Amino acid sequence: QGQLVESGGGLVQPGGSLTLSCAASGFDFSTYYMYWHRQAPGKERELVATISDDGGRTTYADSVKGRFTISRDDAKNTIYLQMNSLKPEDTAVYYCKGSYYWGQGTQVTVSP
Predict the structure, then answer these.
(1) Sign of the four-CA dihedral 52, 36, 17, 74
(2) What is the spatial distance between Cα 26 and Cα 71, in angstroms, rounded to a whole number?
Protein backbone atom coordinates (compact mmCIF):
# COMPACT_ATOMS: atom_id res chain seq x y z
CA GLN A 1 0.00 0.00 0.00
CA GLY A 2 1.48 3.28 -1.09
CA GLN A 3 1.59 6.38 1.06
CA LEU A 4 2.50 10.04 0.62
CA VAL A 5 3.12 12.35 3.58
CA GLU A 6 3.49 16.09 3.09
CA SER A 7 5.16 18.48 5.51
CA GLY A 8 6.49 22.02 5.62
CA GLY A 9 3.33 24.10 5.42
CA GLY A 10 2.64 27.04 7.67
CA LEU A 11 1.93 30.77 7.94
CA VAL A 12 4.18 33.13 6.01
CA GLN A 13 4.07 36.81 5.13
CA PRO A 14 3.65 37.97 1.54
CA GLY A 15 6.99 37.87 -0.22
CA GLY A 16 8.23 35.08 2.00
CA SER A 17 9.33 31.54 1.20
CA LEU A 18 8.42 28.00 2.21
CA THR A 19 9.62 24.57 1.16
CA LEU A 20 7.17 21.68 1.15
CA SER A 21 8.28 18.05 1.29
CA CYS A 22 6.44 14.89 0.33
CA ALA A 23 7.82 11.52 1.45
CA ALA A 24 6.69 8.48 -0.52
CA SER A 25 6.58 4.83 0.44
CA GLY A 26 5.04 1.59 -0.76
CA PHE A 27 5.51 2.04 -4.49
CA ASP A 28 8.40 2.28 -6.94
CA PHE A 29 8.88 6.03 -6.51
CA SER A 30 11.71 6.47 -9.01
CA THR A 31 9.59 5.24 -11.93
CA TYR A 32 6.74 7.71 -11.49
CA TYR A 33 6.07 11.27 -12.44
CA MET A 34 5.16 13.21 -9.32
CA TYR A 35 2.84 16.17 -8.87
CA TRP A 36 1.99 19.03 -6.54
CA HIS A 37 -1.62 20.21 -6.52
CA ARG A 38 -3.37 22.80 -4.38
CA GLN A 39 -6.91 23.63 -3.37
CA ALA A 40 -7.98 27.01 -2.08
CA PRO A 41 -11.22 27.48 -0.13
CA GLY A 42 -14.21 27.41 -2.45
CA LYS A 43 -12.10 26.52 -5.48
CA GLU A 44 -11.33 23.36 -7.42
CA ARG A 45 -8.08 21.51 -6.91
CA GLU A 46 -5.48 22.67 -9.43
CA LEU A 47 -2.20 21.23 -10.70
CA VAL A 48 0.71 23.39 -9.62
CA ALA A 49 3.83 21.52 -10.72
CA THR A 50 4.97 18.26 -12.34
CA ILE A 51 8.32 16.48 -12.35
CA SER A 52 9.22 13.56 -14.60
CA ASP A 53 10.43 10.22 -13.32
CA ASP A 54 14.05 11.09 -14.05
CA GLY A 55 13.74 14.64 -12.79
CA GLY A 56 14.74 16.03 -16.14
CA ARG A 57 11.43 17.65 -17.03
CA THR A 58 9.35 20.00 -14.95
CA THR A 59 6.22 21.99 -15.73
CA TYR A 60 4.39 24.67 -13.78
CA ALA A 61 1.04 26.42 -13.68
CA ASP A 62 1.30 29.92 -15.13
CA SER A 63 0.33 31.36 -11.76
CA VAL A 64 3.49 30.01 -10.07
CA LYS A 65 6.00 29.96 -12.94
CA GLY A 66 9.23 31.67 -11.96
CA ARG A 67 8.38 31.54 -8.24
CA PHE A 68 8.01 27.82 -7.45
CA THR A 69 10.49 25.00 -8.09
CA ILE A 70 9.71 21.29 -7.93
CA SER A 71 12.51 18.81 -7.34
CA ARG A 72 13.02 15.20 -6.28
CA ASP A 73 15.52 13.10 -4.37
CA ASP A 74 15.11 9.47 -5.35
CA ALA A 75 17.53 8.36 -2.64
CA LYS A 76 15.06 9.72 -0.08
CA ASN A 77 11.86 8.93 -2.03
CA THR A 78 10.92 12.56 -1.57
CA ILE A 79 9.77 15.47 -3.70
CA TYR A 80 9.99 19.12 -2.77
CA LEU A 81 8.25 22.35 -3.69
CA GLN A 82 10.34 25.45 -3.09
CA MET A 83 7.97 28.42 -3.00
CA ASN A 84 9.36 31.96 -3.21
CA SER A 85 7.76 35.39 -3.47
CA LEU A 86 4.58 34.01 -1.94
CA LYS A 87 1.31 35.88 -2.47
CA PRO A 88 -1.97 35.77 -0.54
CA GLU A 89 -3.52 33.98 -3.51
CA ASP A 90 -1.10 31.08 -2.92
CA THR A 91 -3.03 30.29 0.25
CA ALA A 92 -4.33 26.72 -0.11
CA VAL A 93 -3.95 23.15 1.02
CA TYR A 94 -1.10 21.64 -0.96
CA TYR A 95 -1.20 17.97 -1.94
CA CYS A 96 1.35 15.71 -3.56
CA LYS A 97 0.35 12.92 -5.91
CA GLY A 98 2.18 9.94 -7.35
CA SER A 99 1.01 6.69 -8.89
CA TYR A 100 -2.54 6.13 -7.51
CA TYR A 101 -1.86 7.94 -4.26
CA TRP A 102 -2.54 11.34 -2.74
CA GLY A 103 -1.08 12.81 0.40
CA GLN A 104 -3.24 14.20 3.20
CA GLY A 105 -2.30 17.78 2.38
CA THR A 106 -0.44 20.56 4.17
CA GLN A 107 -1.87 24.04 4.75
CA VAL A 108 -0.05 27.07 3.39
CA THR A 109 -1.34 30.46 4.51
CA VAL A 110 0.12 33.69 3.13
CA SER A 111 -1.00 36.66 5.19
CA PRO A 112 0.49 39.83 6.70
Answers:
(1) negative
(2) 20
Q: What is the pLDDT of residue 54?
A: 96
Q: pLDDT per residue over 36-45, tens digit each?
A: 999 999 999 9
Average pLDDT over residues 40-66: 97
Spatial contact of 105 and 93, defined as CB atoms under 8 Å apart:
yes
Please tell me the distance from the alpha carbon of residue 106 to that of residue 108, in angstroms, as a whole number: 7
Give the burial class of 58: count Cβ atoms within 10 A of its Cβ; 0-12 exposed, 13-18 middle, 19 or more buried: middle
Q: Which of 89, 79, 72 is nearest to 38 (CA)?
A: 89
| pLDDT band, residue 30 (cuts 50/70/90) | very high
